[in-house]
Write a structure and sequence with these properties.
By secondary structure, the chain is of the alpha/beta class. The chain has twelve helices and eleven strands. The protein is elongated, with a radius of gyration of 20 Å.
Length: 279
Amino acid sequence: MTTSPDARDLEGCRIGVPESRQLDLFADMLERRGALTVRCPLVDIRDTPDQAHVTRWLDDVIDNGLDEMIWLTGEGLRRLRDFAERDGQTRLTAFVERLGQARTITRGPKPVRELRALKLRSDVAATQPTTAGVIEALADADLAGHRVGVQLYGSDPNTPLMDFLGDKQAQVKAVAPYVYADETETPQVLAFIDRIVAGDMDAVAFTSSPQIKRLYKVARANDQAEALTRALNGLCVAAVGPLVGERLEAEGVQVTLMPESNYFMKPLVRAMVSHFKPA
């Protein structure tokens, strides 16, 4: 793709891109702006190995319906749709019909986008795109005896949300349709960490919490965690949204910039442009 000279407002910026899914798309957005990207795939997303659990969950939803459905990620909705579709269009149609009968709660914009693709809508939006935001949005809801579906992400049991729904006396129907898996060999991750510590980057852009978990897992195993934190705090650290920002702050890393509302890659790129080339 040809880029006009006026668009190369990240010219010469060295940006670390610790991404796996959609790595090329995000890196290309930055490179079209003139950035020099340092790519390091850190995690992969795969269907859960416990596929029988997902099948049982789908059967239960199709047979008995739900009163509420909580979507935490767009990835989760996409995976469940694919699981249902593998058994035929009739099963997928029945699943979508049941979802349409439930009150839908969404944690952020990505599940909303996936719902629209199924001609469904979000009825209740989290006050912020975090678990705490979901809990706050449902604080006054009467859920006693309600069948409440919850799409979990990765292998995280999301104890705060489960405890909240338990206190509300809801009948929780949780499903975890995917897992995060390490994709990159440790030497490649260590080389990425070494470049950060050596000051070889102007910025690092994080787009998911599992990236940070994997990066620090390798850093700690090699006595590099403190050096990594110091180095990150000396450069521009970009986070795609609050959940990623919270994970960075838990590691002692100060977030430099984040999109103001739409937590996607394009707004993240625009925020980086504003940082490096203010108007």
